[in-house]
Amino acid sequence: MAVDEGSGQYLQNLLGNSLLASFFHDNSQATLIVAVLAGVLIPLLLALAIGSRNGKKVKERAVTVNVGGEPGIAKRNKRFQALLGTAKDGATTLAEIFEQACVEHASSPFLGTRMLLKAEMVKGKDGRSFEKLTLGKYVWTTFGQAFERSCNFASGLLAIGHKKGERLAIFAETREEWQIVLQACFRQNFCVVTLYATLGADAIINSLNETEATTIICERKQLKKLRELSKQLESLKHVVYMEDQLDKSEPKISDAERDWKVVSFSHVEHLGGTAPLEAELPAPDDIAIIMYTSGSTALPKGVMISHANMVAVTASVIVLVPGLDATDTYLAYLPLAHALELAAEMASCMKGVAIGYGSPLTMTNTSSKIKKGTNGDLSELRPTLLTTVPAILDRMRDVTRQMVDAKGGLSKHLYDLAYGRRLAAIEGSWFGAWGFEKLLWDVLIFRKVRQMIGGRVRGVISGGAPLSHDAQRFVNVCFGVPIVQGYGLTETAAGSTFSEWDDTSVGRVGPPMPHCYIKLVNWEEGGYLTTDEPMPRGEVVIGGLNITKGYFKNQAKTDESYKVDERGLQWFYTGDIGRFHPDGCLEIVDRKKDIVKLQHGEYISLGKVEAVMSVSPYVDIIMLHADPFHSHCVALIVPSRMALETWAKKTNLNYEDFPDLCQRNEVVHEVLKSLLEVGNQAKLHRFEIPTRVKLFPETWTPESGLVTDSLKIKREKIRKVYADALQDLYKS
Description:
The chain is of the alpha/beta class. It contains 22 helices and 27 strands. An 8-stranded mixed beta sheet has the order 4-3-13-12-14-15-16-17. Strands 1, 2, 18, 19, 20, 21 and 22 form a 7-stranded antiparallel beta sheet that branches. The longest helix is centred in the N-terminal third of the chain and has 22 residues, at 29-50. The protein is globular, with a radius of gyration of 26 Å.
């Protein structure tokens, strides 16, 4: 993902800055008045007649089980008596899942790629040039064609000299060819190394040399980066580049530089098609993928994921997503090098779901790379299912709110009324909007907001980081669909818990998935105990069929985090702190590495406070910093450009440009005031609320190395880069 328009506007550029430009445009004054009357009088009378819905019986979603290992409280999913480990028709490997799906749905559309009609550079208002794309319709590869292509590519890899037992790396953004390569490797039991397309030089060198990868599959734009690192890549022999739709020229790279064999994707596919070879399918216990972590706390570690691990997660997903079948359409845009996206696509494959590929930079009609007049991926594909990360939902919520505030007047009051009534209904009150009133608000207000995601989405899955209460309710109200949170790590092959679709509570990540147990064990140093009231608390430990085989060539780290109990079950110690609710659902409340003891003995949880502070309309990204030698904390913030400029306009504050605005004392004071307000509303202690902040006009992106591809902050990297700024905050 690249920053290509406007400093400090990364996420806003992904989603567009005029999502509600036509909000209320076609509503007459008379219609608005009728809506207000209907929205206020009818439901109020109804509410008085019927009363509230309080006192609902709690639905049990997980039960306590007796398991081995360290003492604690363990839960399993109530719907399943035994751990679920195999997929449909007894498939035990990803290769079997793929082949079964391709046979069953042979003529159905499977992988979709948009036609790139034109790419051009245009100048922005500040004189800088940005790339804009004109994209056409989706062109589809059927399941049967995908199977044939993967078989051909597998044979082609052997034809160019890739040998059995050697590892192959995929270094590309999410696209159709990524999935073809992955399945091709599984056909010949090649172990795949996944690299994020935005990795820096050190991480690329470490990953490729550590795994001794001999072949790499990349995009043309990654060739330049590989060439610059060629003398440091010790084992690489073959480079296969994925062609661009418009640029058909030969890449400018000398294979003599490192004796690499550089060939195109289509050439490898053609070679395999002319000389097909028999498949050598993997066993369930074979390593399918060495997936490198996002590196949010240190240099990425390679996690060894077996076929059995990924099959267990995939099998669970298809039973937890209601009605998942071939009538669904899924938009794939998150990194396939992330376990969350891989699990989502494998589950889609298994059930015959059509997968349309997109990009964070082309998602909406106003995304930064979309040429005006061109549909974004969401509008063109109109998916029924969407997987996302909280940062993107936060941005959708903030931009929507800011556009409504800017509209002002009766439109703003009507939106606020509609939002409040629907929110009350979702949270269980008869004083909220139900029945006809709900339909009225959907038609008048929320229909336009729902077009942001194509208008057909029936469910949203969020993972990769904690989802804020506000973002969850925004999806429930404005999109009108369930949003479920998943919790897991690369080390647990993505999925460990998964909210159920009928659970409208906020802040929780659901019960254990059917393939694993969730256990809480005491962390006495931090004061989290399984005997705590009103809910047991402790470190989250996960055991089951999804627990991976450890870290590649890092036995010390493996021994530190992975344990095998007396019954032979493997457990992973997450470092996260959770608590069990009475219905068995898990809530993540803290992280061991995020807890800092201040000068006077108070403990502060950085992640918890950051989640609260992100509710401020002025905050796009925040990193809280606490020093044990001080009694207060400070924060580094990438502010919301739209929110700050709107405030500056209202207060008649003159400024030269956005960087100048971020340095103004009045602005810093306004941001601190907002942080204090949201902190007090969340009942934080005074020492948890930052007393000083530094605002950065340039946003933090995966390319900058300051956030991961799932937009989680890299705390240690930020501390090093901005060490002087942090020192200055404590001095001032």
